[in-house]
Known about the structure:
CATH class of the largest domain: Alpha Beta
Distance between the termini: 33 Å
Strand order of the largest sheet: 6-5-4-9-12-14-15
CATH architecture of the largest domain: 3-Layer(aba) Sandwich
CATH topology of the largest domain: Rossmann fold
Strand content: 15-25%
Helix content: 25-40%
Number of domains: 2
Radius of gyration: 19 Å
Amino acid sequence: MSLTELTGNPRHDQLIQLVAKRGYMNIDELAQLLAVSTQTVRRDIRKLSEQGLITRHHGGAGRASSVINTAFEQRELSYTEEKIAIAEAIADYIPDRSTVFITIGTTVEHIARALMNHSHLRIITNSLRVAHILYKNTEFEVMVPGGTLRPNNGGIIGPSAVTFVEGFRADYLITSVGAIEANGDLLEFDVNESSIVKAMMTHSRHILLAADHTKFHASAAVEIGNTRLVTALFTDAPPPLPLETLLQQQQVELVVTSATAEEPTL
Length: 266
């Protein structure tokens, strides 16, 4: 199931997709595009907001604070082979005896599994799902912060989690991202989750970014940084030429792992 098939109702799925793409749409626009009455749109918005799929506003609807996380289980099935290839490339990049920040997401969970053959890693993560994977290696020291637990993705958020992260200096940060703009801006969907990512970025010596090809064409609302801060970008397909050129100018290492590539492009 994809993000365009969240509800099983084609009109509701289309409404979610429109709002997710634009960030905010008013009722009249939605009624025209969906070819229904404004009353129907209002009912749809009310129902979908109650399900947490969009945010209800006066006169319109906006993207849910974490519409991607709403479909976390569906995303686990998306681009699995590509994510595994990215995960293995990042795992190869991480030396033993490193201190590593790891964030929330389906891609980083694949990376966590790929790290299991390493030894003597210290891992600080705000993902209970990542911690559940990694704690089974008895040579790892796995630490999680206190805070508020998100039931949809196992993420831990909140001021206490940010403070916990700020007490460390990691050799590497492993993180995914909601979207990458052509100017290198890194975007996320949830302001609460992004505050922890930004803290981890500030307290890391090297930032390793995992982003499958869909991130080059996605849209998100919360800026967390720019590719100029990134040490290496790991992806399954070359980015659009303007972004690829920018990465070269910023001296960001680009590692492309795909079924069509014989070896990673450095």
